[in-house]
Amino acid sequence: SNGLSQPSSVSVSPGQTARIPCSGDALPRQYAYWYQQKAGQAPVLVIYKDSKRPSGTPERFSGSSSGTTVTLTISGVQAEDEADYYCHSIGTSGTMFGGGTKLAVV
Amino acid sequence: QVQLQESGPGLVKPSQTLSLTCTVSGGSISNGNYYWNWIRQPAGKGLEWIGRVHTSGSINYNPPIKSRLTISLDTSKNQFSLTVMSVTAADTALYYCAREEPEGATRWGAFDIWGPGTVVTVSS
Questions:
Q1: B106 vs A contacts (CB less than 8 Å)
Q2: Nearest Cα to A61, choosing from A7, A27, A18, A103?
Q3: What is residue A2's predicted lDDT score, i.e. its pLDDT?
């Protein structure tokens, strides 16, 4: 299918590791990107080309890819990481986004 | 550093035309290998890519809504624009403009700079 699937929500306690998967048939052939969107703010790029961090992204954020699934991992989650996270890649018609995952830090 | 700022009417009546502008500051819109994109987000929902224009003037649209869209580049004003015809309530959303730097020959890449967004409501 020409789409990206993410879980609607993930919950972790502070200090734990959060993993947010994103699945799609295009992912073995196309790069994936990840964005963090805090309440009332525009999205911010946190991972590009599957696993690279832009300057300014904390080292606790990492990305990985395996087959049709890419994963955003946040190690040692902090309260400030609570946000919506969107994966992004390229489909047959152009840019596509996953539905977004709400990360709750509880 | 480059910054983006959306502007538009806020409220549009059903069946009318929506026009939005994104003003680029801190750099020239015509320099470099970039795509200038429009992305929207209905309240409480996810992101939807609308379309983009390259610094060369080439344009790509999201096929499901392509028939109602026009995206253009105005290098003299350092702006790019979006027009959506025949709007309905389904076009109500927060509209973002964003810069995209393509990865080599792929012609697609990450959205590295976003505007703050502008809310558009379609209502009579």
A1: 30-31, 90
A2: A18
A3: 67
